[in-house]
TrEMBL record:
Keywords: Membrane, Transmembrane, Transmembrane helix. Coiled coil: none annotated. It comes from Chelatococcus composti. This is Putative integral membrane protein (TIGR02587 family). The chain crosses the membrane at residues 54-76, 124-142, 154-176, 188-212, 224-246. InterPro entries: CHP02587_IM, DUF2391. Pfam families: DUF2391.
């Protein structure tokens, strides 16, 4: 809903490079298949069912986005087919992830129902989804650019440290239920090296990709690219660390 009601998303749907938009949708499909494998609509018995669920989530997201955008007056008569398609397609990623997360967020499963024992790689994947899930909400806003312009190198360094502290606090407090558990006896440096640092790298990579997709890095100097990615990396890293709470 926040994305559907954000004016920057409406403008991006009209101005975004069509190739980047297509790549975003292509990137979304395997992500949805893997997500369905873990926390989809239902417990699936094979990859084919996961693909069907992913396509179903895409369909739900397209219909929901179309209905809401029409209701908000964001799309309507007089607009070109390209503009309408772009405004709907750019909403597909957050809406389809939300559709697949409906059961884990809103369902009434028992505490152990649908839980899967995650491997380390599976936990890193959920971190990536968590980073995208939270970072996507603020990536299209002008504030990302404004904040990065206001920051000095010392501000950027402090924000990196703060992001790592928030991540580590989440990871140590929440752990990874259903996966590699962290206990009070786990040395802080072990969890930091195994989860916090890799998770932050994943969050930064997802932030960089989303910013590139939205054209936020076009014609920007290298220092500005780094600063903007660090700014978006703050909410993205929190989403990565809290993946087990979100997902």
């Amino acid at each position: 809903m926040p994305m559907l009601m954000t004016m920057e998303m409406w403008w991006l749907g009209f101005t975004i490079d069509p190739l980047r938009l297509v790549l975003l949708v292509i990137f979304c499909l395997p992500l949805l298949v893997l997500l369905s494998r873990r926390v989809g609509f239902e417990a699936t018995r094979g990859w084919w069912e996961d693909v069907v669920d992913a396509l179903f989530a895409l369909g739900i997201s397209m219909v929901t986005s179309t209905v809401c955008l029409v209701a908000f007056g964001a799309i309507g008569p007089g607009m070109s087919a390209r503009e309408i398609a772009g405004k709907i397609a750019i909403q597909v990623v957050p809406a389809s992830i939300g559709a697949l997360l409906a059961r884990s967020q809103l369902g009434s499963d028992g505490p152990d129902e649908g839980k899967r024992q995650e491997s380390y790689g599976g936990e890193m994947f959920l971190m990536a989804v968590g980073a995208l899930f939270l970072g996507f909400n603020v990536a299209p806003t002008e504030e990302m650019i404004v904040i990065s312009h206001r920051m000095t190198p010392w501000h950027a360094a402090a924000l990196v440290v703060l992001s790592l502290m928030v991540m580590h606090g989440f990871i140590f407090a929440v752990g990874f239920r259903g996966g590699t558990e962290l206990t009070p006896q786990t040395p802080w440096w072990s969890a930091f090296i195994r989860f916090t640092l890799p998770g932050y790298v994943i969050a930064m990579a997802m932030s960089l990709y989303v910013l590139w997709t939205f054209g936020r890095l076009d014609d920007a100097a290298f220092e500005q690219v780094i600063a903007t990615t660090i700014v978006l990396g703050f909410p993205s890293s929190a989403g990565a660390a809290a993946a087990r709470l979100i997902l």
